[in-house]
Amino acid sequence: MIKVYKYEDLPEQLLEEHSTNLFYCPSWLSVLRQHYGCSYYATADVDSGELMFFALIKCIAGQKLVSMPFSDYTCPGLMQPETLKEHVKALRKEFPELPVLLKVSFPDVSENSLSSLGTAEEMGCLHRVNTGRGVNLESSMTPSYKRGVRRARVRGLQFGTNCSYEGLEQFYNLFYELRMKKHGLIPQPFSFFEKVYEQFISKGKGFFIEVWKEGRLLASAIVLKHQNGLYYKWGCSSLSDLVDRPNNLLFYELLHLAQRDGFEYVDLGLSDTKVNKGLIRFKRSMGGTRSDIFTFQYLPENYPHKTMEQFKSIVNSMASIVVASRFDRETTEAFSKTLYPLFA
After folding, report:
1. Complete edge-to-edge strand list for the sheet that includes strand 51-59
2. Is 0.70 topped by the overall pTM?
3. pLDDT tens digits, one per residue of 172-214
4. Pairing status of strand 62-67 against strand 100-105
5. Helix 143-154 and helix 277-285: axis angle, to 10°?
6. What is the tens place of the pLDDT at every residue in 77-94?
7. Is 297:121 a contact under the CB 8 Å cutoff?
8. Rounded Cα distance, 276 and 288, in Å
9. 3-state secondary structure of 36
10. Residue 119 has pLDDT above 90, yes or no
11. Residue 251 is inside which H or E element, if any?
């Protein structure tokens, strides 16, 4: 039998058994709760102990349930699609008036085998690199990737790690410029990354990886630690210095750092299969193994779906106007705090 719990009412044993997922861990849940005001529910099989987490968040039309917002994916472990369908069914019975958004990763499962969950509306993928003891990392890297590493070294680029608040500020300066100038997208506000810093990096659960040249920061990324893995979560690099291949050196050193420190894998995160083809090739070139991520949406009866899509289009247009207007950082931050939650 599937039962719906408030997060606060979950038996402690269930929480401990499912803490292997970074996006279910207390630190990550605290980041989302503190910044976005999420409250959490879980669907749990009282016999097997299998569970799924969902966040109740504000959206354009009120509220919706998401598994999990601003997280790369939900990995339901050994749960089969038919079982997951029952979890969704129990949640929708408890909240018949709310939309439900499900984003899941099943290793080695095709889209056809997920048909019991409905039709996937979006598709992404994640890549992981095995960094276990005895793994020859070089053998999985393509020749062009390794040439990029050599070029970075010849050009005098240097790799390092950082856990300071100054590292956070330096990361965000570069991140802000990349989002606004290259991608034309409004960035998450600095205050969000402050919460990540407080919950992870300041407590020894994460760090910044950086590439420098002659006192200039060329690339930076936030890496989170969770159990036996390292998770690359956000990254950025200087557009004018890509010819020096800072990202090749950044990830090369990250993978070797993970292996030296006894981590079994590096999770390279979510890529959109429609717009991130170059990024997918890059992750594959460093030895990343792909798993697909599927998104399903369940709407209540008579839900004004077309109207909500029009509202979403308006929000996207507003965000584009903010980017095009090139406001100062403080003004952009104010818009970002208002608009970004609506993208979940």
Report:
1. 2-6, 39-45, 51-59, 62-67, 100-105, 289-298, 122-130, 265-272, 229-237, 216-226, 206-213, 158-162
2. yes
3. 999 999 999 888 889 999 999 999 999 999 999 999 999 999 9
4. parallel
5. 90
6. 667 888 889 999 999 999
7. yes
8. 15
9. helix
10. no
11. helix 246-260
